[in-house]
Amino acid sequence: MTTPHQPGQPSALDRASLHSRDIVFFVVAAAAPLTVMVAVAPIALLVGGIGAPAGYLAAGLINMVFAVGFTKMAKHVHNNGAFYSYIRKGLGKIAGLGSAFVAVVCYTLLQLSVYGLFGAVTEATVNDFIGVDLPWWVWALVAAAIVSVLGYRSVRVGAKILGVLLVLEVVVLLVLAVGVIAKGGATGLSLEPFQPDNVFTGSMGAVLAVSFAAFVGFEATALFRNEAVRPDRTVPRATYVAVVFLAVFYCFIVWVAVMAFGPANAVQTAEADPAGYFFTAMDTYVGSAATDVMRILIVSSALAALLAFHNAITRYGYALGRERIVPVRLSFVHSKHLSPHIASVTQSVIAVIAVLCFAVSDVDPVLQLAAWTASTGTVGILALQWLTSLSVAVFFVRGRDAVHDRGAAVAGVVAFLLFGVALYLVIDKIELATLSDSPVVNTIAVGAPIVVFVLGALLALWIRARRPDVYEGLGSTDIDSDLAPDSQSVRRTLAPTMDLTENADGAHHD
Question: Transmembrane stretches, by residue range (predicted)?
Fold first, then answer.
């Protein structure tokens, strides 16, 4: 049942429109598994050897520990501000608002990195297939136009498209896996990559630094709380499914990649041609036609990631607009599509301007645009997961808004320590992410999230002094119970019908 409201007014998004599988599509699509495997997994093999599959599994297990406290806290955070809302709940409004700005900036940077990658990959693919040679930024603007249209429309449309694109990119990797396993790999199948002497090496820290980047953004499940069916069940379920899937899938595919060339030759092959590693494997075990399909699906994988990041960023804008931190118009909902259309248009304009600025600057879309923005975004999101873990622990130890939960508090403490290690590893090996030895580039990648956090915290202090009414409401919007003023009487009138409808199809929703 959709809450009726007047056009151009802040109200609820498309309630009860997303099931667990839909939210998983948004989160996993943002991770772009095909792109991550083709572009990043060979680097993991280079820096960590054949034990790289275990690195992805370890990163997944650490994220699972984080998910325990995160999902338990989800029942007590009725706001779709994700990191902002969770950190505010445990660590206070100043830290919460600082985190909100870091989240928006870092997700925007991650999206920009995908625009650069999408433009470069599409430029090469279209040129090779049909001989049309256009600069990368033209294709990036085409992607921005597609994303803006889909982001403006109902979230249901985006969920369906992401579902199709995600299935296709997963299937093509599974086709490669079947080919490698059926032929027994290059020298026979084995579990050698998981042997202790290959896992517990001095280079495993570098593998973890690369692996954690592949999971960035799975907390976005909470951003869709307002649009989820039975959010107290759907959001935790989607979170666990996304983390488990990514951990197992990444580990399995990287193991397949090692088997494709054999434990003795995998690293040397990756060193000789990291960009063509997976393409060579597909050519060898499946055929050139499958390789062509893989190249095309990398383009669609990047497009899916762009749409997923777009929806995540607009939900942050929607949440902050409702609390008057940013212009309230960003929280306005389209009368037909029930989407945060003004936030969507705003985000699209920012993306287009940024792409044009990088185009004028004549930067390399992969080695500079994608690498620099992705590294900065990854550091910021990992730092927010670190703070969220601490917030979970503090929240459940205090027990102010809920009963004490010792298990959740312990999970928060453990996740805080583990993410502290992860953050240190990423910062220590930041040159792997930036693809640069420049002290300036690497310092900006690490320092920019800190600067943004401080600016957000200072804004919170200014709001507390000058706009106490706004400060009082930070992070307090209850999207589960908040209704548009004009809809109250309608809801009372339709309540019996709604109850019958929910009882009739409630089982179908989950």
Answer: 23-48, 54-73, 94-116, 136-155, 162-182, 202-226, 238-261, 296-318, 338-361, 373-396, 408-427, 439-463
User: Checking phi first, is residue 6 left (phi over 0); if not, alpha (psi -120 to 50) or beta?
Assistant: beta
> CA-to-CA distance for 470 and 104, rounded, in angstroms?
20
Q: CA separation (Å) from 333 to 4, 9, 222, 410? A: 11, 7, 19, 39
Whose CA is closest to 212, among 381, 17, 49?
Answer: 381
How far apart are the C-alpha atoms of 414 and 389, rounded to whole Å?
8
Q: Do you know the residue count of the chain? A: 510
Q: Which of 52, 492, 474 is closest to 251 using CA atoms? A: 52
CA distance 474 to 470: 7
Q: Which residue has the tokens 């989800």?
A: 74
The rounded distance, in Å, linking the Cα atoms of 20 and 214 is 21
pTM: 0.85
What is the CATH T-level fold of the domain 20-488, as seen in this structure?
A: Amino acid/polyamine transporter I (1.20.1740)
- Give burial (CB, 10 Å; 0-12/13-18/19+) of 142: middle
SS (H, E, C) 231-280: HHHHHHHHHHHHHHHHHHHHHHHHHHHHHHHCCCCHHHHHHHCCCCHHHH
What's the Rg (C-alpha) of the chain? 23
Please indicate whether residue 107 or residue 75 has the higher confidence score (pLDDT).
107
User: What tens digit of pLDDT does each residue of 280-305 get?
Assistant: 999 999 999 999 999 999 999 899 88
How far apart are alpha carbons 330 and 348 in whole angstroms? 13
Burial of 289 per CB tally in 10 Å (0-12, 13-18, 19+): exposed
Indicate the SS3 state at residue 392.
helix
